[in-house]
Amino acid sequence: MSLFRRKKIYIPLNKPCDKTWKEELETPKPKYEIEHTGVELQCMEFLGVRNEVIYMEDDYNEAANCCIRENYELIKQCFAKKNLRFIYLPWLGKELKDEKIWKYQTPFKDVKCDIDIPSLKSNYLLDFMARPENRYKVGRPCFARYNDNTPGLKIFDLYIFDPNVANNDLQGYFECMAEQLLSFKQWGGVFCTSYKKPQDADEAFDEETKYLLKEVEYRIDLLRRKGISQVVLDNLVKPEMKLSKLVVTKDFRIILPDYGGMEIKMEPLVKSVFLLFLKHPEGILFKELPEYRQELAEIYGRIKGARVSRNLFGIRSYDKSIVNATDPLNNSINEKCARIREAFLLNFQEGLAENYFVTGKRGEPKGIRISRNLVEWEE
Q1: Would the pTM of this model clear 0.70, i.e. be above it?
Q2: If residue 76 lies in a helix (H) or strand (E), which one and from where to where?
């Protein structure tokens, strides 16, 4: 199975649906009818990412390439409005020379990209087709997006690009294209069944973090450059894992001196949760969070310059946000952990960042991996 035609509406199994089948049927027809197909790939050298849109063709199409080159920024903007990153493979090398990208990959170096970066041809993905004999069927110009809604298969949704139609209404056409690229299909699937809602914060830890990070996914992916860009970067940037010392200053700023004195900024309650986990290298079980309420409140109070209040009977009174963040049944702790993760991922690559944010498996203590020998608390 490598080529498909759109005949029915398919919705992923065991995943929450963005639209019901009835809503899907009632959705107004798009301004432009864009032909949709799919292709299955195998033995890929990279992992596709959802928000990446790649221009693809087999035989070079002058009209399509001319349209893209002359309207490149407009096309990027139309896709960016939908949190989609447009990749034009012939120009990929030029984009990857951005020093921000290299600094993100290697924050411990004073990087200046002065080397030639190879680009890829627009038919690169087709070299990995599961059924190469069908290559001629998908050779037309198209925009491809990785579809991870089909477990076990490496499927790319393809939307056929007609430059003749596009040139008559560039912005309208590409906005329509971007809108349709958001609608994944489940090849060979059936209608959505049930979605099991997590029972507590521990059960929701991984999924909730991914969900909350979607709002900054585009900004992060502009820097971390996973997907097709990874093919090029992996050949140029040798994997290095130089961790920076982490310094917590007297005024509770978080500094990474070995990464050019980088400061990791968080809002007070998020920073308080981060410092709580940093103080406990053994990790914290979410079900035991109430036992850390007083400690978290004290950290938060020091950051805010306030003390934990007491009522007439001498019983401590906690801010509602502190209570929520230490409630195992409340999702607040996952929100704070997601913000911690975001704060680091916006500054440098995940291979390094994962040593500084909160991680852990379901039912096990969550913690921050970095050796406490690299942590310094200013007195």
Answers
A1: no
A2: helix 72-80
